[in-house]
Amino acid sequence: MDPLDPTRARPGPARTATFDGRPLPALPGQTVAAALWAAGVTAWHGTRGTGVPRGVFCGIGVCFDCLVIVNDRPGQRACLVQVRPGDVIRTQRGTGRDDD
């Protein structure tokens, strides 16, 4: 059974952003975290100091494990930010600023 059939949901055409310089396809309304997962990327944030890899933990914007840099703005929660065409998304190390 196709999971889209019961609702007759038909997403619009995929849009493209970049993640660390590589194309990242995303469906309309898809969050950065969902697009990264769909692309096989499970970690995109390194903790302060040690750089331990992180990805989605809570998935609802409560924690800070999924932080990414979107269009030069550090500290964006990948689980809440929707991908827009042309977005430039990068892995965030620590706070994402040069003072780490």
- Assess the beta-strand content as a share of residues: 25-35%
Secondary structure tally: strands: 7
Largest sheet, if any?
7 strands, mixed
Rg of Cα set:
14 Å
Ends: how far apart? 49 Å
Helix percentage range: under 10%
Q: Which ranges are low-confidence, i.e. pLDDT below 50, for 5 or more consecutive residues?
A: none
Structural class: mainly beta
Mass-distribution shape: globular
Provide keyphrases for this structure.
single chain, 100 residues, mainly beta, seven-stranded mixed β-sheet, 1 helix, 29% strand
Describe the structure.
With 100 residues, this protein is mainly beta. Helices cover 7% and strands 29% of the residues. Strands 1, 2, 3, 4, 5, 6 and 7 form a 7-stranded mixed sheet that branches. It starts with 14 loop residues before the first strand and ends in a 7-residue tail after the last strand.
